[in-house]
Amino acid sequence: MPSPTLHGSSRTRKWILSSPPVEWATMQLQELLINALRQGPVPQHVAFVMDGNRRFARSNHIETVEGHNMGFEALAKILEVCYKSGVKVVTIYAFSIENFKRPLHEVNALMEIAKIKLLQLCQHGELMDRYGANLRILGHRSLLRQDVLEAIEQATEMTKHNDRAILNVCFPYTSRDEMTTAIRDIVSSSTIPHTSPPSPSPSDSSSSTSTSTSSGKTATPGLMDIESITENTITQHMFTSGCPPLDLLVRTSGVERLSDFMMWQCHQDTDIVFSDYLWPQFDIWKFMPILINWGVKRRKLEKERGDVEVRGVGMGMGVSRDGVY
């Protein structure tokens, strides 16, 4: 148990930090840092695994639901930093399909929090509206209750006119489910059944646009060519289709694994950062060094690629995204 002296000093520190002069100075410093960040490379797509809400609640002797509520407050602050800095897309891991295995009372509580917080986030004049962010819910919606689906529809409708930024909420989601869905969509599009048209006469048989399959159905020509399926084909069928490549993925709580999140979207240039802070503790002062470090590394990477391109041109070699070929 912490001593009374330590407890008193902590309360004094919180009181000082919350005083109007200190809050004003802190906000000014934040704005200065964010404006400085905007001058350099800024990740266009950032993803977060918001881990540690339950552990934070246990360590602070509060209800688990309150830990999740505090996690949402942390999210709102981080979103504001992202959008102010120039990040275009933020993707968050809000609820895994595996989370349905948790105790029913906790799952129900998380669903209630999601309903309330999504609507609060999207209200007129709130964060999503201020930064022109469009809400997208990515995941297996058929697993959700009807009242949750209705809240999601209402929230997405409130932001559908926004076109300056995107917030992807993965809920409920796993990367394996996303990839499975993408493959099913591709296969489905290659065997689209059509109502068989009347048999063409000999004079117009050459204008037929469908070909018969062995099952008696007809399919659109060209989509059956397996060789035409590329990485880009799969990317276009992912839930994140249309979003820029993932530049930065951050996971809090000290756990160093992806937990079935954004496995397809992670690529050779994605920075993955594991922070020891629990998500409710993760604020601008923990996040800002990560953004600054990303910018430094990106400048170095761009310089190295520029040097390779110059050398390659001088030696008569071609250059690909990954180097000389």
TrEMBL record:
Subcellular location: Endoplasmic reticulum membrane
Keywords: Endoplasmic reticulum, Magnesium, Membrane, Transferase
Cofactor: Mg(2+)
Molecular functions (GO terms): ditrans,polycis-polyprenyl diphosphate synthase [(2E,6E)-farnesyl diphosphate specific] activity
EC numbers: 2.5.1.-
Enzyme class: transferase
Recorded metabolic or biological pathway in which this protein acts: Protein modification; protein glycosylation
Phylogenetic lineage: Eukaryota, Fungi, Dikarya, Ascomycota, Pezizomycotina
Gene Ontology CC entries for this record: dehydrodolichyl diphosphate synthase complex; endoplasmic reticulum membrane; lipid droplet
The keyword Protease appears for this protein: no
Biased composition (Low complexity): 202-215
Catalytic activity: n isopentenyl diphosphate + (2E,6E)-farnesyl diphosphate = a di-trans,poly-cis-polyprenyl diphosphate + n diphosphate
Family as reported in the entry's similarity comment: Belongs to the UPP synthase family.
Topology class, membrane: Peripheral membrane protein
Function text: With NUS1, forms the dehydrodolichyl diphosphate synthase (DDS) complex, an essential component of the dolichol monophosphate (Dol-P) biosynthetic machinery. Adds multiple copies of isopentenyl pyrophosphate (IPP) to farnesyl pyrophosphate (FPP) to produce dehydrodolichyl diphosphate (Dedol-PP), a precursor of dolichol which is utilized as a sugar carrier in protein glycosylation in the endoplasmic reticulum (ER).
Pfam families with a match to the protein in the record: Prenyltransf
Subunit structure: Forms an active dehydrodolichyl diphosphate synthase complex with NUS1.
One GO BP: polyprenol biosynthetic process
Protein name: Alkyl transferase
Region spans: Disordered: 189-223
Source organism superkingdom: Eukaryota
InterPro entries for this protein: UPP_synth-like (IPR001441), UPP_synth-like_CS (IPR018520), UPP_synth-like_sf (IPR036424)
